[in-house]
């Protein structure tokens, strides 16, 4: 299978829900997932609600808009095919989880990492103090010392994983 899949922010759940739905009988199609500050519960987590109108990259209202665009039916957001945090995660590949403490989606990352590893999968979690949404990839901390350290850590984790492959 392909070696890895990566996704961030509003599309963060897609490498989990889309291929898992299409290939449930064949198993998960990737050997490593790099999940960077994703939305894993489209219905919303406490940190999204608590973030309010504060804008570092996005506000809680912006995230609600993204959720409305992705899944207008609010009841359907509780479906694991929409919100993978709510699904059976057994048999998933190893995954790298990354978020900053100033990210409205931090609970999505923390809860998904806990669910992922709780289902028996390997998972690495990196939480960046004072890192906003997009740390290391876009926005105000794409190329700051913090952003560069975040990106270097992700690259290091991917390299270490690849070194383990036969």
Automatic annotation (TrEMBL):
Ranges where the Alpha/beta hydrolase fold-3 domain occurs: 30-135
Annotated SUPFAM superfamilies: alpha/beta-Hydrolases
Species of provenance: Mantoniella antarctica
Highest taxon, organism lineage: Eukaryota
Lineage: Eukaryota, Viridiplantae, Chlorophyta, Mamiellophyceae, Mamiellales
GO molecular function: hydrolase activity
Protein name: Alpha/beta hydrolase fold-3 domain-containing protein
């Amino acid at each position: 299978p392909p070696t890895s899949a990566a996704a961030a922010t509003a599309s963060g759940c897609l490498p989990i829900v889309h291929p898992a739905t299409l290939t449930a009988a064949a198993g998960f199609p990737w050997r490593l997932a790099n999940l960077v500050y994703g939305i894993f519960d489209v219905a919303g987590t406490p940190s999204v609600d608590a973030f309010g109108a504060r804008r570092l990259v996005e506000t809680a209202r912006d995230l609600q808009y993204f959720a409305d665009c992705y899944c207008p039916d609010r009841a359907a957001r509780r479906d694991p095919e929409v919100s993978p945090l709510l699904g059976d995660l057994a048999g998933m590949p190893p995954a790298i989880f990354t978020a900053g403490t100033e990210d409205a989606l931090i609970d999505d990352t923390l809860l998904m990492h806990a669910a992922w590893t709780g289902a028996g999968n390997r998972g690495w979690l990196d939480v960046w103090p004072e890192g906003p949404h997009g740390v290391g990839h876009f926005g105000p901390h794409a190329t700051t010392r913090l952003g560069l350290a975040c990106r270097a850590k992700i690259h290091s984790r991917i390299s270490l994983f690849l070194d383990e492959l036969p």
